[in-house]
């Protein structure tokens, strides 16, 4: 497999760019296979990589600080122009495991929900699910920093995303997976983040970028081995919870999500 990849990247070394393509991504566990593909390809010589929170990546793209970002999809509705450039995304078909509401009490007893400051998509999904799926009115409080997790007490819950959500499962009495709830409501998969540019990019680069993502996903065993000790089943998380292909069904789910955001 590695020899095949080397043969491919040999063909893309002639990509003509005046400067490196600036790529922004998050460093959550769910992005590690994609970032591994970049780090182990010659495409890395064409790319300048920055890592940050999903919400910050949106600002970077808007301010022309990056050319491509793994953006929370809810933010796309705020952009004047955007292009989804890859056949790969961060999505789920049912349980996602790393995006959930955590509480001490059952869902129907929750009165307040702190919203994670790191991602707009999960926040909008949370609001949509309370309105359209659980049909429950709660007070939403936008968190400002990491300390909000300490407010999970009594009838106050919190939306937590990413690696912190995996850790919180060992601490909270109840958790409600947003990927599961979306699938129950719509029978469609969900897209949390997609590779987005603010302008048209060279098709040769896009082809190379796609194959870079695919290469990382084909080497999950190596990715997992290099992660070292992780306190949960990472193999299951990558193969069952996270769904990386941006296929027709996910695009349908994304279109419905956009419609529901507009109707909030």
Short description:
The protein is α/β, with parallel strands linked by helices. Helix 4 links the parallel strand 6 and strand 7.
Give a structural overview:
- This protein is of the alpha/beta class and 264 residues long.
- Strand 6, helix 4 and strand 7 form a beta-alpha-beta unit.
- The chain folds into two domains: 151 residues, 3-Layer(aba) Sandwich (D-Maltodextrin-Binding Protein, domain 2), CATH 3.40.190; 88 residues, D-Maltodextrin-Binding Protein, domain 2 (3-Layer(aba) Sandwich), CATH 3.40.190.10.
- The chain is built from ten helices and eleven strands.
- The strands form two sheets. Strands 2-1-3-10-4-11 form a six-stranded mixed sheet. Strands 7-6-8-5-9 form a five-stranded mixed sheet.
- Helix content is 39%, strand content 22%.
């Amino acid at each position: 497999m590695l020899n095949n990849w080397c043969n491919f990247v040999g063909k893309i070394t002639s990509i003509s760019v005046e400067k490196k393509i600036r790529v922004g991504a998050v460093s959550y566990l769910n992005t590690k296979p994609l970032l591994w593909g970049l780090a182990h390809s010659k495409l890395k010589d064409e790319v300048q990589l920055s890592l940050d929170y999903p919400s910050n990546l949106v600002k970077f793209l808007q301010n022309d600080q990056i050319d491509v970002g793994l953006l929370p999809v809810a933010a796309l509705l705020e952009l004047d122009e955007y292009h989804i450039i890859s056949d790969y995304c961060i999505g789920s078909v049912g349980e996602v495991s790393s995006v959930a509401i955590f509480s001490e009490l059952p869902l129907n007893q929750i009165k307040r929900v702190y919203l994670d400051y790191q991602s707009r998509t999960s926040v909008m999904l949370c609001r949509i699910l309370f309105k359209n799926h659980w049909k429950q009115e709660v007070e939403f409080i936008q968190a400002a920093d990491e300390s909000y997790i300490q407010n999970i007490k009594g009838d106050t819950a919190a939306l937590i995303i990413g690696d912190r959500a995996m850790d919180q499962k060992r601490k909270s009495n109840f958790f409600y997976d947003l990927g599961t709830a979306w699938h129950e409501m719509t029978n469609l998969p969900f897209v949390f983040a997609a590779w987005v540019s603010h302008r048209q990019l060279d098709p040769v680069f896009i082809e190379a970028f796609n194959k870079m993502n695919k290469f990382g996903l084909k080497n999950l065993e190596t990715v997992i081995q290099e992660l070292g000790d992780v306190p949960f089943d990472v193999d299951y998380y990558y193969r069952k919870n996270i769904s990386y292909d941006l296929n027709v069904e996910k695009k349908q789910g994304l279109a419905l999500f956009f419609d529901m955001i507009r109707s909030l």
